[in-house]
Design a protein that fits this description.
alpha+beta, L,D-transpeptidase catalytic domain-like, Nuclear Transport Factor 2, Chain: A, seven-stranded mixed sheet, five-stranded mixed sheet, 11 helices, elongated
């Protein structure tokens, strides 16, 4: 009686080999969300242990009462006691608007991410350097419908947790207002909106990010209101592609994540597919960028404007000025000074995960000269031009 049901679920197991992947070795992390229980249910189905699968599904629902995918599986298991099922989801009772295909996509996304946990010896390429006071960083993989949290361990990013997410209905690489896409790029949490200030649609809270950032604006991208937020009170999770562009987590996941978010500090890097580096390669790339920043600082101190200018891209713009006008202004300023000293501290560097190759660099700048001194938080966008990193934008952070 369960034969047809097994035939419907077996592609999940054969495609991802969940239990074998977990047992195969590699670092073990604290599991975030229902994936371990879900994987066990499907493993019991593969092993023809139907009653055990049903018991574990009930355990799953006790832990996550609004988990619609688990309700659908339970319905199939119950109905399969009396008849052969012809399709996945035949035994479930779905709320209005729910689709079996959406729940199948959610199951696949959850299990695929569960199988491929990050290797502890590799880090996302984008986290080149975190400031000392940036305790955590968030990296989103839209292709896997997953959000990863990394802790700042004395400068080295260390994986601590991951969560299933939903993103834009029409995918990623947001370009304009209303396109129902999630942006790709380097962003930061800008504020915290508590449940009391929101409708139930946003769940237990929301954390806006600074889309469009300076780079997005230069590329002509627009839109607003891209948030990390929760789900309605009657909804555990949404399909992988279900938002108007925001990154959406289950409320309990958002609550756990919110403890690690720092307004104005936490980077949120959104990628279509995360690129991983070994710690050795990550360190080499990080050091290369730090060397370039130090050369820029030293050349500024030299008051040799030509040396200083070589660090600025032909595409550079700042305060409405292009590269040539800006450099000539610097030449006049430098001529009026007898000495310049520049110190850079608390540097963070985050590489863009998209096709556009740039690094967002933020630091505390202590500028002193013979006739002017100031302190500021500065942000620069470095791009690759003629095989060399150069500054395309800079301004106050």
């Amino acid at each position: 009686m369960f034969k047809a049901l097994r035939a419907r679920f077996i592609p999940f197991i054969l495609a991802f080999c969940v239990t074998a992947a977990v047992a195969a070795g590699g670092p073990r992390y604290t599991d975030s969300g229902p994936e371990p229980l879900l994987a066990n249910v499907l493993a019991q189905i593969e092993a023809n242990k139907w009653e055990a699968a049903l018991r574990q599904t009930e355990d799953l629902l006790k832990a996550y009462p609004n988990f619609r995918l688990a309700h659908l599986i339970k319905g199939d298991l119950l109905l399969a006691r009396t008849k052969q099922l012809k399709a996945f989801g035949e035994g479930g009772t779905l709320a209005a608007g729910d689709k079996v295909a959406d729940l199948r996509d959610e199951a696949l996304a959850r299990l695929k991410a569960y199988k491929s946990k990050p290797n502890g010896d590799y880090v996302p390429r984008y986290l080149l350097q975190m400031q000392a006071d940036q305790k955590y960083a968030v990296v989103v993989d839209t292709q896997k419908a997953r959000l990863y949290v990394y802790q700042n361990d004395k400068g080295t990013p260390r994986f601590v947790a991951d969560y299933y997410i939903s993103h834009g209905k029409l995918g990623d690489a947001k370009l304009k207002e209303g396109d129902k896409k999630t942006p790709i790029g380097v962003y930061h949490v800008t504020s915290s909106l508590p449940r009391q200030k929101l409708t139930d649609f946003y769940g237990s809270g929301a954390f806006p990010i600074n889309y469009p950032n300076e780079w997005d604006k230069r590329q002509g991208r627009n839109g607003h209101g891209i948030w990390l937020h929760g789900t309605p009170s009657d909804t555990f999770s949404r399909p992988p592609k279900a938002s108007d562009g925001c990154v959406v987590l289950a409320n309990q996941d958002l609550d756990a994540l919110s403890k690690n978010l720092q307004v104005g500090l936490t980077p949120v890097i959104i990628s279509n597919s995360i690129e991983w580096l070994s710690l050795d390669d990550w360190q080499a790339e990080r050091q290369s960028l730090l060397t370039m920043i130090n050369e820029w600082r030293e050349d500024w101190e030299s008051r040799d404007t030509d040396r200083y200018a070589r660090h600025y891209s032909k595409k550079f713009q700042s305060d409405g000025q292009g590269q040539q006008a800006w450099i000539e202004q610097k030449r006049r300023i430098n001529a009026a000074k007898s000495w310049i000293k520049v110190a850079t501290g608390d540097i963070s560097m985050f590489r863009n995960p998209g096709k556009e190759e740039y690094v967002v660099v933020t630091f505390d700048q202590d500028y002193r000269s013979s006739n002017l001194s100031n302190l500021m938080k500065k942000r620069q966008y470095w791009i690759k031009e003629d095989g060399r990193w150069k500054i395309a934008f800079e301004g106050a952070a």
